[in-house]
Design a protein that fits this description.
CATH superfamily of the largest domain: Winged helix-like DNA-binding domain superfamily/Winged helix DNA-binding domain
Number of helices: 15
Shape: elongated
Strand content: 15-25%
Oligomer: single chain
CATH architecture of the largest domain: Orthogonal Bundle
Structural class: alpha/beta
CATH class of the largest domain: Mainly Alpha
Number of domains: 3
Largest sheet: 7 strands, mixed
Mean pLDDT: 91
Order of helices and strands: HHHEEHHHHEEHEHEHEEHEHEHEHEEH
Number of strands: 13
Helix content: 40-55%
Low-confidence stretches: none
Radius of gyration: 27 Å
Length: 407
């Protein structure tokens, strides 16, 4: 869907704040009729009344209040991003006093596409535009800010240091703008928005699908996206606004713009096929584990650190012939077809244990518990559908915790 004009958003925000068309026009340095036209175009775009007019001035409708809240978030992000990107006045290229009032959403989208795709041609293909139009939009944006956002490298076109920060901000600005329509739809009882969930391990295999299945019952027209990948990939997507939340094992956060919401404590175990000698005959000592090869999670994950701790506890040389994978379907197939061992969540293999395919060995693990969390942007303002999905995640994990306690 084509986005409205950014200047129309700004004028509407001023009209809501000033409660007066004349004062809004003065603040925007335009005529009163231009203010009225800008608001009318937004109302036409979203097919709803946003402002009520009276002899005492103007005030937002219920829908106008919903739109203004999201629009103000986008404008605040834009103002902060341009302030970070712009050099002090009097240095480098000349630029307007308030560049955030001059740039357009088309320029932001063109720059973001070129930065993400690694070039103007690829960015143009991504947007369905011509390469010259994307190049021109990015050049105009750089001139407004007075800085270089992209640079040529041996690998192609890449964001500069300032450009990388501005690209992350641009992604969040465009996300907030796109959510205006979702917020207005929800306020009118139409729940057709999107929820994008990044998930790893247990979240991907059981928790997130269950939560989505429940949320779909209440919001059948909503669009749910479940995305997998490495933690670093998912975190990048979350910070860029491509994902709304991540479900994963808790870990030390390396950035302060995201937070973790604890969901429940998961229990890990050494796992083997049900007919494995250690599952059939039992374990006489921890050294028994030395005789078998291992399937380990990817390096850098919380579970991998626990596996490495267990292997150190076992002692002896590091096992040869390691297989590393974070894909549960691969781990399961490898376990069933060999005498290899791994460390998995008991909940992840509950069905396989009940069906007699896999077994959790009777062996105490160092640090057997890990906290499963929902990772969110610190300043996230979720839509109703996104909030409902998060609440379903919490409800399911509360049920799991209660069931574990009863056992």
């Amino acid at each position: 869907m084509e986005r409205p004009n950014l200047r129309h958003f700004r004028v509407f925000s001023l009209a809501v704040r000033e409660r007066n068309i004349s004062r809004a026009a003065e603040a925007a340095h335009i005529t009163q009729s231009a203010v009225s036209q800008a608001v009318a175009k937004l109302e036409s775009h979203y097919d709803c009344k946003l402002l009520e007019r009276s002899s005492a001035g103007v005030y937002p409708t219920a829908l106008g209040t919903v739109a203004a809240e999201r629009i103000d978030r986008a404008l605040a992000r834009l103002r902060a991003a341009t302030q970070r990107a712009c050099p002090p006045r009097g240095t480098r290229r000349a630029r307007p006093a308030e560049p955030d009032r001059m740039l357009t959403l088309s320029q932001l989208a063109a720059f973001l596409a070129a930065a993400q795709a690694g070039g103007f041609k690829a960015g143009a293909c991504q947007l369905g535009l011509s390469q010259p139009s994307v190049h021109r939009a990015v050049r105009q944006l750089q001139d407004l800010l007075g800085v270089d956002l992209l640079e040529q490298t041996s690998l192609g076109l890449s964001p500069t240091r300032l450009g990388a920060d501005f690209a992350a901000s641009a992604a969040l600005i465009l996300m907030e703008i796109d959510l205006v329509a979702d917020d207005l739809d929800e306020a009118r009882g139409r729940h057709r928005g999107r929820v994008a969930i990044g998930s790893l391990a247990l979240g991907r295999s059981e928790l997130v699908p269950r939560a989505v299945a429940r949320a779909v019952k209440s919001f059948p027209d909503a669009h749910f996206l479940i995305q997998d990948g490495t933690y670093d990939q998912l975190l990048h997507g979350l910070r860029a606004g491509e994902l709304d939340l991540i479900v994963t094992a808790g870990r030390p956060l390396v950035t302060d713009d995201v937070i973790e919401v604890p969901l429940f404590d998961d229990v890990l175990a050494v796992v083997a096929r049900a007919g494995h000698p250690l599952a059939v005959n039992g374990i006489s000592s921890i050294e028994d584990l030395r005789r078998y090869r291992w399937i380990l999670p990817r390096q850098g994950t919380p579970t991998r650190r626990r596996c490495d701790g267990l292997l150190e506890q076992i002692g002896g040389p590091k096992p040869a012939g390691l297989i590393e994978t974070g894909a549960l379907v691969s781990v399961r197939a490898l376990l069933l077809d060999s005498d290899r061992l791994t460390v998995l969540s008991r909940r992840q293999i509950a069905v396989d244990m009940e069906s007699g395919l896999l077994a959790a060995l009777d062996l105490p693990l160092p640090e057997p518990r890990r906290t499963i969390v929902a990772t969110l942007r610190r300043d996230w303002k979720p839509t109703q559908v996104q909030s409902a999905l998060l609440e379903e995640l919490k409800a399911i994990t509360r049920e799991w915790t209660a069931a574990d306690a009863s056992l």
